[in-house]
Amino acid sequence: MTELRLFYATNRNHLGKDRWRPDGYGKKFSDDGVENLRFGRLTLEADESKMARYLDKDCETMGQGDGEGLIKYLSKCAESADIVAYREKINRSVAEDQQENIKLGSQAAFADLQAIMFKNTDVLIYIHGFNVSWVDAVGSALSLQEMLNHCPEGDPKQHVQVVLFSWPSDGMALPFVSYKSDRSEAAGSGNAVGRGILKVRDFLASLRRADEQLCKQDLHLLCHSMGNYLLQNALERCDAFTPGNALPRLFEHIFLCSPDVDDTALEEGQPLGRLHELARSVSVYHNRGDAALVVSDYTKGNPDRLGSNGPARPTLVHNKVHQIDCTSIVKGLVEHSYYLVGNVNADIRMSIDGMQHDDLRRHRNRVGVMGNQWEMRST
């Protein structure tokens, strides 16, 4: 058995009597409000041999590693996770910067993560998608963490620590009611994510003001499915509380995986049109055979999805946005969560390691003449 560790932030309601040592988190917003963020960490025990079956699996055209299959096992392990929320001392009726002797859970979490980053470790913030319970969110985040850290193409000296942001996706698998409910809750959770991003900005600014030694590691962000809609709403919050004309560049890479947002969302003047300001590079992974997004299109009355065909008008998105078509290798094997499998996951890891988009070691070919459009290949 091995111990797995995960950091998290959530605006879900806690389960159990003790909010600082909860039994888990539920499908409603925190009792302290939609924007209330609880920061914490958890550990769980997992069987290395069982994980290895998924991490080493040959997934045909997708390559090595079945992180989607690993989710079910790790979600089961998450049912008995040891969860510790960072304690806070705060008066929510008074602005944080006006309180003396305030104690913020975010500051304690960031300090612990900073210590980990000094050990050659990048941090990847992960926002899950539609219809995901708390234990499934934990299982997905840990699966992503394990896949990235066991990637055959990864730099063995570089590690990745995933930080889960879990919003109250209801996890009930009711196709129509759940989708509408989750979309409303994703929009409401956008402000909470925006608030978290601003907390990261302020923490980094405080380190620079104090002239503290920096770890020289990177922050990244990965959003899956409806998690991209949540990010879309978070940008509004960031913009409202950012002085000047540009958003702070906090992330090295932002990965939009199977994004359940309009296919025009990245164009100037659209909800994600300024996303490139937050990062050095943005990667959009899409699949024309994504059945989940087809359902979003036709049964929910949404326009074409970014995660199906990529940007509707590729020439109108910023040149920092790279579009990666995964259709040719997915082939119905993993329609919606292919970012957790084989060569697509490896491609994400190569970006985290600082590999250039046109590096020949990547399993992708350039398409078109723009220079930022790619197609994944199996070998």
Query: How many domain units?
Result: 1
Beta percentage is 15-25%
The rounded distance between the terminal residues' Cα atoms is 33 Å
Major sheet description: 11 strands, mixed
Query: Order of strands across the widest beta sheet?
Result: 5-4-1-7-6-8-9-10-11-13-12
Write the layout of secondary structure elements.
Blueprint: E1 2-10, E2 12-15, E3 24-29, E4 38-46, H1 48-55, H2 67-78, E5 82-85, H3 105-117, E6 121-127, H4 134-149, E7 159-166, H5 177-209, E8 219-224, H6 227-240, E9 251-257, E10 279-286, H7 291-298, H8 306-309, E11 321-325, H9 327-330, H10 342-352, E12 364-366, E13 373-376
Parallel strand pairs: 1-7, 6-7, 6-8, 8-9, 9-10, 10-11, 11-13
Antiparallel strand pairs: 1-4, 2-3, 4-5, 12-13
Helix pairs in contact: 1-2, 2-4, 4-10, 5-6
What does the model show?
This protein is of the alpha/beta class. It has one domain. Helices cover 32% and strands 21% of the residues. It has helices spanning 48-55, 67-78, 105-117, 134-149, 177-209, 227-240, 291-298, 306-309, 327-330, 342-352; strands spanning 2-10, 12-15, 24-29, 38-46, 82-85, 121-127, 159-166, 219-224, 251-257, 279-286, 321-325, 364-366, 373-376. The strands form two sheets. The chain has an eleven-stranded mixed β-sheet with strand order 5-4-1-7-6-8-9-10-11-13-12, sandwiched between helices. It has a two-stranded antiparallel sheet with strand order 2-3. Helix 2 crosses helix 4 and helix 4 (134-149) packs across helix 10 (342-352). It is globular.
